[in-house]
Design brief:
With 750 residues, this protein is an alpha+beta fold. Helix content is 17%, strand content 39%.
Length: 750
């Protein structure tokens, strides 16, 4: 007995396609009628389903089966959600009225789902129990999967069904790989959805190699007695064509050449459907282009061409086919050339922050982009003891085409003022960047920055040397002996970085992996106050665990390798050489890193020592800690994102476990060991609430230090006084309240 799986007329979801194809298999097994419960159950317009369960399920998941039916239950934690729904601005649980007819149809839907998965003899019935007092139903779908049909073999033929398709010699090895991939279905359980996907892959292979009218027909030859099925794919290539003339329409401010150079093909190239899709994306990647469409004459299916044949005299399309070319029309809709945009957000580490941009998206023609931007991290309302205050202005010019459509260049002079735990300083310079974009989430860049930083005040005025006591250090500090760090610093740095991977959504991803490595080196040495190699990288992973539950993970690692002038000399303190590299040392902790610690304060840190006038003397006081950092860092975050019952899909919650370590393995830069135990691995755990927005989640939560160091638990001023009075540090009063760290981030997406 044979059944033929015809391709759908229009695009459907995977579930709908499987159900449609399975309709042809239904005739192989009798009894599609629904089996009602043994007795009649009274229902009315107010009856709802309290719970739906499945028994006898072994192969398909309950999630797949629930997606196949239309009957809905109240869901988990209904009582809590109903109670919360009485609060203002909180949605009540949706009501799903029970329909006996829909329940009967659900049985048919489930049977079709099983038949599409290869279980031709699967039986499904339901049992209903009624709660008379609450007018609620509990429904159990009882499934008997039966024996599954297995694929005995896969056959791929050409148009005449007796011989393999004729493949161009240059593509023979590629076609053999495609055939081997299709034949891997043999020996597995029959899955109509998989068979359809493989058919689409074979069809795409031909359409990407010059055959725009190629069609692949699928047929199932099933032996219901042996419970075996053979998949037969019949390839109908149609004519092999090339791209013809390329016309551009709709462009007003950019030339035809600017549009054509973004295309991955030229007239005379072999036709490729993938190249057409790629070209549309590359044209639309131009900022001045709002919408781009690539249009080619629509060809009838290959079997229709074989039946009727082209008529060049009557049809221009047929004439194009006779010449083996397809003309292409690129239709674009341009955006407004000028754009004003901005963002406002809040992060616990930087307080109230904002950014504004003004852009001209066709500056002097050629789709060139001119942008003026300003950034303000004010530190206002920050709960961090050392907020990152930063003001930055920049002008950038981006050239979208540099010798290749995927290569662009950006020149951006900037000026930046900062007042943070490092220093209070002004920096100005220029960045020159080459960006190679393979696709939106796969790119690489080479950046060169030359800049000068003028230091107004060092914030790292703390106890940093282990070979002197605190009073001696403070004396040196008051005499300005840290001026050897310099007040005017040059930097000339090359950075090679990449963005590799794919996310299903940029702002609120549910699935995907992204890796962002970076390599940095100073050169030439005469143009830089320091010399080093810096390796850094971070990876993000997201995976859905249920309908609204998501696992999110982050792993970061980095290493700093000083060389040349940044290495300490024979008579030079390793600590001074270390401090000269403070801008590029690694730190950890903060909202987007290891929660439970304040910004950059996981690991080595010291009291933020300040001097206050008291009569004729200066008194040392400490207000919080400043990070010292290290030459190596490892950190991770494991987060489970869950729905928030009763608050709808825009609200959620999260629980996490974070960890990290910052240390300096190079002993040449250590005048002392680690007496305070700050270089070990630290862990934090916590939870929070999320508000999902189109630009990313708003996160509010709290972290808890699981294994804090001494400096994490004692007040900085207490630690300073203990050192001055030669008091054992382990006797300084510890405050367990310092284990807790609250955080809030707006517009931040971990």
């Amino acid at each position: 007995m044979r059944t033929e799986a015809r391709p759908p007329v229009r695009r459907r979801t995977a579930l709908a396609r499987r159900a449609a194809l399975a309709a042809g298999l239904v005739a192989l097994a009798a009894g599609l009628g629904a089996a009602p419960a043994a007795g009649q159950v009274r229902v009315d317009a107010e009856t709802e389903v309290r719970a739906i369960r499945f028994t006898g399920v072994r192969t398909l998941s309950e999630r797949e089966l629930r997606a196949a039916i239309e009957t809905r239950d109240r869901g988990s934690a209904y009582g809590l959600r109903a109670a919360l729904g009485k609060l203002p601005l909180v949605n009540k649980p949706a009501r799903h009225a029970f329909s006996p007819l829909e329940l009967q149809r659900d049985v048919v839907r489930l049977r079709r789902e099983y038949r599409a998965a290869g279980f031709l003899r699967a039986q499904v019935r339901y049992e209903v129990a009624r709660d008379e007092r609450q007018n609620l139903l509990d429904i159990v779908f009882v499934v008997d999967e039966g024996e599954a049909v297995h694929v005995a073999g896969v056959t791929i033929t050409g148009p005449d069904s007796l011989a393999p398709p004729s493949v161009p010699e240059a593509e023979r090895q590629s076609w053999e790989r495609a055939e081997r991939a299709a034949r891997k279905l043999a020996g597995r359980r029959l899955d109509v959805g998989e068979a359809l996907e493989e058919r689409d892959r074979l069809q795409s292979w031909w359409r990407d190699r010059g055959y725009p009218a190629a069609a692949v027909r699928g047929r199932l030859e099933t032996d219901s007695l042996r419970m075996e099925s053979r998949i037969v794919y019949r390839v109908l290539p149609g004519p092999r064509l090339r791209f013809g003339d390329i016309a551009v329409e709709g462009n007003q401010s950019i030339s035809d050449n600017v549009v054509r150079r973004q295309l991955p093909f030229r007239p005379g190239d072999v036709y490729s459907a993938a190249a057409v899709d790629e070209g549309r994306l590359d044209v639309q990647a131009l900022e001045i282009v709002r919408v781009a469409r690539l249009e080619i004459p629509e060809l009838p299916a290959a079997d229709s061409l074989r039946a009727a044949g082209p008529s060049p005299a009557a049809d221009p399309l047929a004439a194009a086919q006779a010449e083996s070319v397809l003309p292409v029309t690129v239709r674009i809709t341009e955006a407004k050339p000028r754009l004003v945009s901005g963002d406002v957000g809040y992060v616990t580490d930087a307080g109230l922050s904002s950014e504004a941009r003004w852009s001209h998206r066709n500056f002097l023609g050629d789709a060139r982009i001119l942008t003026f931007s300003g950034l303000a991290q004010t530190g206002l309302w920050s709960i961090s003891s050392n907020p990152d205050i930063r003001y930055r202005g920049a002008v950038s010019v981006q050239q979208p085409y540099v010798a290749h459509r995927r290569l662009s260049a950006v020149l951006s002079p900037f000026v930046e003022y900062r007042d943070d735990s490092q220093d209070r300083s002004l920096q100005y310079g220029t960045n020159a960047t080459l960006v190679y974009r393979l696709r939106p989430q796969l790119s690489g860049s080479l950046d060169y920055r030359i800049a000068r930083r003028h230091i107004y005040e060092y914030s790292l005025e703390d106890l940093t040397s282990g070979d002197i006591d605190l009073l001696t250090f403070l004396t040196q500090l008051s005499q300005g002996q840290l001026d050897s760090l310099g007040t005017s610093l040059l930097s000339s740095v090359f950075t090679l970085s990449g963005n590799l991977g794919h996310l299903d959504q940029i702002a609120n991803p549910r699935r995907g992996v992204v890796v962002r490595p970076a390599i940095q080196v100073t050169a030439p040495n005469a143009w830089s106050s320091t010399s080093y190699w810096r390796l850094d990288g971070v990876a993000y992973a997201f995976a859905p665990l249920a309908r609204r539950a998501i696992f999110a993970g982050r792993l970061a690692a980095g290493r700093l390798y000083p060389f040349g002038q940044s290495l300490p000399g024979p008579d030079q303190s390793g600590t001074v050489s270390f401090l000269q590299l403070r801008d590029v040392t690694f730190t950890a902790g903060g909202t987007g890193d290891v929660r439970g610690w304040d910004s950059r304060l996981l690991g080595p840190k010291f009291p933020d020592v300040r001097f206050q006038a008291s009569g004729d003397t200066a008194v040392a006081v400490a207000d919080g800690y400043v990070p010292l950092g290290g030459f190596a860092r490892v950190s991770f975050s494991l987060e489970l994102r869950l729905p928030l019952p009763g608050f709808g899909p825009k609200f959620g919650s999260h629980v996490f476990l974070d960890g990290g370590r910052v240390w300096t393995p190079d002993q040449r830069f250590r005048d002392a060991g680690d007496p305070l135990g700050q270089e070990k691995f630290f862990y934090g755990a916590g939870a929070g609430l999320d508000l999902i927005t189109p630009v990313g989640p708003i996160k509010l939560g709290v972290g808890y230090k699981l294994n804090p160091s001494l400096t994490d638990l004692v007040d900085s001023d207490d630690l300073l006084r203990a050192g001055a009075e030669d008091q054992p540090l382990d006797q300084v009063e510890k405050h367990n309240s310092r284990r807790w760290q609250f955080y809030l981030a707006i517009g931040s997406s971990f």
